[in-house]
Specification:
The chain is α/β, with parallel strands linked by helices. It has 2 domains: 101 residues, Leucine Dehydrogenase, chain A, domain 1 (Rossmann fold), CATH 3.40.50.10860; 135 residues, Rossmann fold (3-Layer(aba) Sandwich). The chain is built from 10 helices and 12 strands.
């Protein structure tokens, strides 16, 4: 097979759906397809509403689909079945088509597990999560499964937390009070800081004394957002959304292709996990 990302009649097609699609997923998947000489292609698609998303899943001939906001929760009842983690989290970011059935997975959970395990944090660390969407749910489940005990969440909508089965293990903080929380780890799952219209917005007011030991920032912004600059200025360890995107993307790749990725290959294609 000629090694090219250009499709032919035998090419397997993988897609991503987002209101504002980025290129990090396509770069990761297509680079791995090329390196491993797989006749596959990954296409990021701009999908503006849930009606179009459902039509695409129903009518388009794809093998796998990656989901971004706001589809991680909106499409969970559209798939035919869920893997164990997706079912307990209540959110999906990965769909595999197998025997014309749609199976939902959550690889955000895997990414968070891997990233937080590497930090070797104390189990009594104060962990503060901003946001309560699909990514936040995956992050919270990973934190709980890693046996952390001091978990705080701030969101504009407390009702979202009240719907989570894990709510008793989490202390809710009003959005207006979020700057008062003293934490060791700050995890931003909101779109604030993401490239585009949100990139000049900060999830935290840094005019206050606010110095966590670790900032885990989920929005992807290749230029570095205000939270990233604050962390660098104050010598706070910073984990970018791109790192998280790579971790979850690798797990997606393994699900889509039923193969284990050798991490040694990643550096050869310019993918870094730190």
């Amino acid at each position: 097979m000629k090694n090219s990302i250009w499709p032919n009649k035998d090419t397997k097609i993988f897609i991503s759906m987002a209101v504002n699609p980025g290129n990090s997923g396509a770069t990761l998947h297509n680079s791995l397809f090329k390196k491993l000489k797989l006749n596959n292609i990954y296409l990021p698609l701009k999908v503006e509403n849930i009606i179009k998303a459902k039509k695409l899943l129903t009518n388009f001939n794809f093998q796998g689909c990656s989901l971004s906001m706001p589809y991680k929760e909106k499409l969970i009842n559209f798939v035919d079945s869920l893997d164990r983690n997706a079912k307990k989290i209540g959110s999906i970011n990965t769909i595999l088509k197998k025997n014309n059935k749609l199976i939902g997975y959550n690889t955000d959970y895997y990414a968070s597990m891997e990233i937080l395990k590497k930090q070797k944090l104390k189990k009594n660390s104060n962990i503060f999560v901003l946001g309560s969407g699909g990514v936040a749910k995956a992050i919270l489940h990973s934190i709980i499964d890693l046996k952390f005990t001091n978990i705080f969440l701030s969101s504009r909508d407390k009702k979202r937390l009240n719907k989570m089965e894990i709510k008793k293990k989490i202390t809710f903080v009003k959005w207006s009070e979020r700057n008062k929380v003293d934490c060791d780890v700050l995890i931003n799952t909101t779109p604030l800081g993401m490239f585009g219209k949100y990139e000049k917005k900060n999830p935290i007011d840094f005019s206050k004394k606010y110095h966590p030991k670790l900032i885990y920032d989920l929005p992807v912004n290749h230029k570095g957002n205000l939270l990233c600059r604050f962390a660098n200025k104050n010598k706070i360890k910073y984990i970018s959304g791109l790192v998280s995107s790579h971790f979850q993307g690798i797990k997606q790749f393994e699900i889509y292709n039923n193969i284990k990725v050798d991490f040694k290959i990643l550096k050869k294609i310019g993918i870094y996990l730190n």
